[in-house]
Amino acid sequence: MSVGSAPRATAELHDAITRLRAARDAQNITQASAAEALGVTPAAIAGWEHERNWPSSPNFILWARALGFEVVVTDDKGVKLVPARPVPKTKGEEPHHYRLRCLALTLRERRLDINLRQEDVAEPLRVSSWTVAQWEHSYRVPTLPGLVAWCHPVRCRLTLSSR
Q1: Which of 135, 133, 127 is closest to 101 using CA atoms?
Q2: Could you say which of 50, 75, 125, 153 would form a disulfide bridge with 121 (CB–CB 3.0 to 4.6 Å)?
Q3: Domains of the chain by range and CATH?
Q4: 156-162: strand order across its sheet
Q5: Res. 6: pLDDT tops 80
Q6: Residue 105 — φ and ψ, nearest 5°?
Q7: Residue 2: predicted pLDDT
Q8: CA separation, residue 71 to residues 32, 64, 130, 159 (Å)
Q9: For 160, which DSSP code?
């Protein structure tokens, strides 16, 4: 499955999903067990692993976490990028939603650090600057392909890091 007209994002998702499938196999976890842990169906896991469809961004973070990975943003040298200030958790916030907020804040700060406007990020993604603002402030969550592609205009990458 390709990500719109973004072959780079498709390739990056393929690599990440290949790593997650290999980790599941190495840990002798069945698709059924993984599905039960994530609250999805075994068919959903099979669809993700065979790239017939993509998990949602929150499900991708949960899936990675269940297999011992953290979803992070890295720069072009592979250095993990983190928000400049600690990001406080809100009361009752699920860990995957907190992780998405941290990723969004990291991408926003990266955009500002390299002096890009929201319009500069939006145009290559074929979304509005309003959409980028919604993502940056965690009012909306991009699709997984959108999250991966969001990294490109700000010269970074979404990667899996062993926890």
Answers
A1: 135
A2: 153
A3: 7-68 (1.10.260.40), 71-158 (1.10.260.40)
A4: 80-81, 69-75, 156-162
A5: no
A6: -65, -40
A7: 39
A8: 23, 7, 25, 6
A9: E
